[in-house]
TrEMBL record, chains A, B:
It comes from the Bacteria. Its main location: membrane. The record marks A498 as: Determinant of potassium dependence. GO terms for biological process: sodium ion transport. Its cofactor is Mg(2+). This is Putative K(+)-stimulated pyrophosphate-energized sodium pump.
């Protein structure tokens, strides 16, 4: 192992150290007045109550899956490490959510207080708090990866174990006679399955968080704003705390878990693809298999260090306008990107990556920027699409909806074309025309490249809900108007970064899923083991040996499964992933359907959860005397409780569907069906997600554009139509759209973990 | 040629004869009072004015494409028949549209008059008029196919021409030394490209008709009903005639052209797949290649004869309820299906089709019924989904929209699963596990089977708009209320058949596209011609010969194109349609995007065209004195003109995009890219179309459910929300959704026609 690999654990620890420093310096700031502290305390309690309940559900799911995975490991259709690794992936992702949200809820009042001093101070507090989330995510993700890589390569796959095998508790961890090449393949494909823990955690965080935040939002708006006519964030509204909690739950914890998964998934998938590179592809490049496997981790490590530097670049002056604020953030992210590229030039010169891979990383970084900018174009009220929706709002809600849907559907073209050019560009840049495997490895690196700036990108994302909450805190604490003006400026900035952040999240999800699907085939190839020509039988991973004639194997004390000559034919059929294999085509259809079905389920879930919230807010207005006069305190906790319960109840069915369908397809339609399912889910899911995110974002900003005084301003017919658009857009952009990121990745991850079972079933 | 083939021309002529008989007997009925005649005349003139203008535009497009195809034929990248065949396909489709619409516009007043005598009389007139459309479509489509097949097999590919070649006007029609096997492949792949004419015609009919009908509808509703407060179909509304014209233009002509294309496409694609069956697959089945090629035409011919019998089965009693009416239609369609199956049993016993193919047809027929029933479940107000939307309407327009979208997305699962099971079932039933080509041939037969009842199915579809128009006529002519009650009963029946008809149209479009995509590969294989190993060069179809070294060919006076060894490698790359070819994957993404982009464009188009209509209706109300008191006649023709112009103007861009994108993808991304594009367009487009159709249908019926007196009935807040849902749903279900059928098929058809160019470009 080269010394440069040490950068991986070092950078991940560095990220955690800086996260700690930023957190400490955050805590030194005052939370302001007693009222501010009180509000912040309510939100904090609500957020923690939610997290506690969510983790309880998640733990049950984890325990069930852990048992299932263990049973599979016992029967040899699963690697024995996977159950434990599954837990660590989930644990660290959950820990990030806890720490990020804790920080965010500590930061809102402090940001409001900072804004009461100066705009720059407010920006610094909010942004550095967001950076805690960003650094915690990349830090723990890379630390987990580094730890497992070191454990597996140094402790488990020792030369001695590789020669003699390693058994423990009746399970075979290392097969006798494992070669050096096999070792890397075994290690990386095993590590790949760790991502399953992060995926499961992300599923619940994104879907649950998405349902929570919208249920609270709709409840607060529909009864508070529309029926009772009190302003946003008014303390008389019982759902207002739940609404503020929702921002943290959905946009901090949900987004963080989503990107944690993409980050870990892209690195692990690329490492697995690196291990699968044939010698002929590496010949003459100066890259050895170990370099190919560790390079994505090293690129990620470099990205962490330079993201930290980028975070320090973000500062602004008091007289800052929206543009200069945006510029401050842009300098930070763009600065990190440039520094990363410079560092990669060095890495290429040192012979750790090929120049082709370098360009693949450049393409990934560029694709992230382009998708982000396109998202801004389609959803910002400074451009034609959103202005057009506001214009249509004059003719009533129906035309507002139609135009918003058209804008959203139309907006899919730039992201799709970017991803297509990105995939093809990365493939060819890395040398896919000469060696197919190199091209696929390049696609993986495009994903790693896009996510290399995650430390700072996530900081700008998490900044949004913190600023939003600071505004809420300022409003509820009745701070002077100039404070609210400053927090509003930060909040608007947050809306823009949230939109570009959503584009970034779905773009990286697509590339990560792409890398994972490629890695899935490696996993399948591994599980097939050595196929003996003519149906003589083959040795699968783990304890099972597949033979045409099981008797000799049984005599030797090996668990053996009979396979037929027909099964061996199925092996090539399983690899027939052409369109004309009806299993593949059927899978494609099902994947496309899954995207729509999952969206329908999450949207319905919001509707039901919001309905319960509406009833509760109405009840409080009715039953608690003096609440509207501000004489009685509403029961905030009741609303938090309802949103929490609703989210937990409603997230289960869609989540289970996302986990179970790939298993069923794998068992019934084999590898070709699974690949079709994943490809259909990826392509249709990506397009659908972009449509929903951007339609939702555009409706939101069209409404705000009208509220600025256009087309009659607040209270006009156009405004009413705009509110309808915004309400429809809420579950689009904050629940269903982002949840599709998870669906795309999770279905792939489940398939990877279930590859052993799928392959075994297809051979029996 | 066997005598049984004679059934094909005979059945097609029989269909036309019965269409003529039905038309004549229709014309014998009275159009009723002078007022009724006047109204009918307005609608007829409007419809013909529209058709005239549309055909003018279409003729220009056809001339341009004809010239392009001729140039391609001259340069040897296109078969010389294609330009002429393209024209005949377009001509017959256009003729069907003209005749069908002419009949429908003659039928509305006669149906109203018939309904003034008895319900059964009204049903008979409307249904038999619809049958004219159904029989004209299947008759001309099959006649065109039979004529070309006889021309090519009897006149062009004679033994003498096959031995010596056939040249004419400097173009090579038959290559020297063509074998019997090659003959059938050449004939069927050439015929396949005839469908391009039908596709182009269908594109303009569906997209233009869809825009027309919704622009008129929205204009009539928004200003007339909402602003001026006058009822539906009121003669004081200037847009009311345009609205009635729209029903004919969109639902008769548009639907007819759509299904004409599916019908011809499925038969031609299956014939091409039959010609490509390898001898080993046919061995022992008793089927020879000629039987394999003509069997789909014979099945279609049988379907025609038995559809005619089915049409005679449709009759009802005066005391008929909605249920008995529906039962009358069901007996007709179901009766035909059963008779077709019985006839196919005979065909299988006679050894014209295998039993596997028989089961594939059964699967196709069953899939059509299931998708139709699922559509009814999700869009009829007798079931939970639509009732749920009406319930949500109480909370305002936003929840109505969200719930409708969720219902639409949710409704995709049954049709998708049905299509998946249908594709896989037909594949395996036909013997795909043993011989891949047989399985694909079976999928083609599933499409042919689904469409075999088209004669009667289309009659029930066209019935809807005729009944709708009859109602309009009765209203405007102020007939007694019991007449309106009877036409309302027929209209409601029409709404149900329209919904199931939409499901049938998209289901058959999916299967047809599937068969076409498979046939596309045959087209590509043919164009590649005989690849010489090691880059020696190969002979492509037409005059060009591709050689590594062009000199010897040039000496022999043959136009020759140099190809490189790298190009020969591309040949296999072009066939690499696995997910891991980034070209294929990129194509998949682009196909999914095309579905969304096309929907956005058609939706925007409706918005703009409707805007112009709204302005015009407002102008007439303002400027024509006494219009609202019924003292002055509105300028109906002006509104018809505006809808017509708007539709023509707006249909061009989306239409051209649908035609050009496959060409660009073919030129830049080769065969793999094209296949990806088609697969992505098919799977995402199908899901999106089902979503849009069903969401639109459910909103429509939810509104009607409220109007029946539920949740406050007409004028309530729930009703207002229901109207918003219905308005959003209109372009969903009548423009964008149905237009996707065309997109799916047209992109495939364009690719088939351009296969020669794509292959040539990929080899240069």
């Amino acid at each position: 192992m080269s010394n440069i690999f040490l950068l991986v654990p070092v950078a991940s620890i560095l990220a955690l150290v800086f996260a700690w420093i930023f957190f400490k310096s955050l805590m030194k700031n005052s939370e302001g007045t007693d009222r501010m502290k009180e509000i912040a305390q309510y939100v904090r309690e609500g957020a923690m109550a939610y997290l506690k309940r969510q983790y309880k559900v998640v733990i049950i799911v984890f325990v069930v899956l852990f048992i299932l995975l263990t049973i599979m490991a016992y029967f040899g259709v699963q690697n024995p490490f996977v159950p434990i690794a599954f837990l660590t992936g989930g644990f660290f992702s959950g820990l990030c959510g806890f720490l990020g949200m804790k920080t965010a809820t500590f930061a809102s009042a402090r940001t409001a207080h900072g804004a009461s001093q100066s705009l720059n101070k407010g920006l610094q507090v909010a942004f550095r708090s967001g950076a805690v989330m960003g650094l915690v995510v990349v830090g723990f993700a890379l630390l987990d990866i580094a730890a497992w890589y070191l454990l597996l390569s140094k402790v488990i796959f020792t030369p001695e174990h590789m020669a003699n095998g390693l058994h423990f508790l009746g399970l075979q961890f290392v097969h006798e006679g494992t070669t050096e090449t096999q070792k890397l393949v075994e290690i990386t494909t095993t590590m790949l399955t760790f991502g399953m823990g992060a995926s499961t955690q992300a599923l619940f965080a994104r879907v649950g968080g998405g349902i929570y935040t919208k249920a609270a939002d709709v409840g607060a708006d529909l009864v508070g704003k529309v029926e009772a006519g009190i302003p946003e964030d008014d303390p008389r509204n019982p759902a207002t705390i739940a609404d503020n909690v929702g921002d943290n739950v959905g946009d901090v914890a949900g987004m963080g878990a989503d990107l944690y998964e993409s980050y870990a998934g892209s690195i692990l998938a690329t490492a697995a693809l690196g291990a699968a590179l044939p010698a002929v592809a590496l010949a003459g490049t100066g890259i050895d298999p170990i370099k190919a496997v560790t390079a994505p981790m090293i690129v990620a490590a470099i990205g962490i260090v330079l993201s930290i530097i980028g975070i320090f670049m973000v500062r602004t002056k008091e007289s800052a306008t929206q543009k200069t604020l945006l510029r401050a953030l842009f300098i930070g992210t763009f600065g990190s990107s440039v520094l990363i590229l410079l560092a990669l030039v060095g890495l290429a010169f040192m012979g750790w990556i090929t120049w082709g891979v370098f360009w693949a990383v450049v393409i990934g970084l560029a694709a992230g920027v382009i998708i982000g900018q396109a998202t801004e174009y389609y959803t910002s009220d400074e451009y034609k699409p959103t202005k057009g929706i506001a214009h249509q709002a004059q003719q009533g809600p129906a035309t507002t909806i139609i135009d918003g849907i058209a804008v959203g559907m139309n907006s899919t073209w730039i992201p799709v074309v970017t991803i297509v050019l990105g995939i093809m560009g990365a493939f060819w840049a890395a040398g896919g025309a000469q060696h197919f495997a190199m091209g696929v490895y390049g696609i993986g690196f495009a994903a790693v490249g896009m996510l290399s700036t995650l430390g700072i990108t996530l900081a700008t994302d998490a900044f949004g809900p913190i600023a939003d909450n600071a505004g809420g805190n300022a409003e509820m604490s009745e701070l002077p108007p100039e404070v609210r003006e400053r927090t509003d400026a930060l909040d608007m900035l947050g809306n823009t970064t949230a939109a570009t952040g959503k584009g970034f999240a779905i773009g990286s999800a697509a590339l990560t899923a792409m890398a994972l699907i490629s890695a899935y085939m490696e996993e399948v190839r591994l599980w097939f083991g050595k196929i003996a020509k003519g149906g003589e039988g083959f040795v699968a991973k783990g304890q099972y040996v597949f033979y045409n004639d099981v008797a000799p194997a049984v005599e030797e004390g090996i668990k053996a499964v009979k396979i037929s000559a027909a099964s061996v034919k199925d092996f090539s059929a399983a690899y027939d992933i052409t369109l004309f294999n009806p299993l593949f085509l059927g899978g494609l259809f099902l994947g496309s359907m899954m995207a729509f079905l999952f969206s329908a389920m999450t949207m319905k879930a919001v509707g039901r959860a919001a309905g319960a919230m509406v009833d509760e807010v109405r009840r409080q207005f009715r039953e608690i005397k003096g609440i509207l006069e501000g004489k009685a305190t509403p029961e905030y906790a009741k609303c938090v409780e309802i949103s929490t319960k609703g989210a937990q109840r409603e997230m289960l069915v869609p989540s289970l569907v996302a986990i179970i369908v790939p298993v069923i397809v794998g068992a019934s339609m084999g590898v070709a069906g699974v690949i079709g399912l994943l490809a259909g889910g990826l392509t249709a899911g990506f397009t659908l997600a972009v449509f929903m995110n951007n339609a939702g974002g555009a409706w939101d900003n069209a409404k705000k554009f009208i509220e600025k005084g256009n087309y009659g301003g607040k209270g006009s017919e156009a405004h009413k139509a705009g509110v309808v658009g915004d309400t429809v857009g809420d579950p689009f952009k904050d629940t269903s759209g982002p949840s599709l990121n998870i669906l795309i990745k999770l279905m792939t991850m489940v398939s990877v973990v279930m590859a052993g079972l799928t392959v075994t079933l297809s051979l029996l």
